[in-house]
TrEMBL record:
Name of the featured protein: DUF1618 domain-containing protein
Entry-linked PANTHER family: F-BOX DOMAIN-CONTAINING PROTEIN, F-BOX DOMAIN-CONTAINING PROTEIN-RELATED
Amino acid sequence: MAGVVHVLPHLGGKDGLGYYACTVLTADDRDEKTIDPPRSSSYFRLVLVYKYTRCGFTAFRSYSSEEGSWSEEAKVTNARLGNIQMGLTDDSLTHNGVVGYGGRLVYWLSKNVVFVLCLATLQSTVVSMPRSGNGQTFDMLNTLMGLSPNGMLCAIQLDRMSLRPANRRVPIRVTTCTDHSWWDTEELIQVEQSLPEDVGNVRLRWFCEKSGAVFFSTISGSNPLRSEMYVLNLETRVVDKLVSDDRNSNPWAYVHGYEMDQTAYLASLAEPEGMEDM
């Protein structure tokens, strides 16, 4: 794949960051209510929330590709997160957020809550995540967040499941927000019929919201273990197995799912000019 690398101005010294989370807004995030749409289709805006350990408040800055510079620091008001939730551990605030409402809201998953930031007012809200009944640690490893086809925030989770052969049940739960309530509608999709009989572990991996695809992995068998990757189409409820690996290791530990449209995919296959001379 080829692309353009943007080197952003350094934030250091008195502007040094502590714990942080960020996400990128693009021209594709705008909608019909966008007041000041970007001038270029290649526009991006990096938004950053971070916490000063010495001051204890949550701050905000953003970098715009159109301006070519960082914004002034501003204070995030209303809700706040503690050091553990803003930390860089497995159960902390994720660096990649979900952009909704035409680029006006950003959602970050943190432990068992969602940190919601309004970019226009810099007011924040903390909302509890749905519980699966499998325990908080399990939920933190098996919760994905994204937008539904109608643009509403949704949570993809493994519901209470059983891997016993006599009573095997592996439901994927989709809980969606509405304009009236958080986590208002719930749907269960059973996937156990697509899994091997000797499955011993299931874990959610990635949610590609534009295509409605949920990726999850399994570990099955013994001596050697088999690790397999599956994809669930939320619209058709069809499960397909993508790949199987027989190594006694986790082949997905350093893999991250990435979604692109067909035009971008075909462009990535084109060899850049001068590449043959490199």
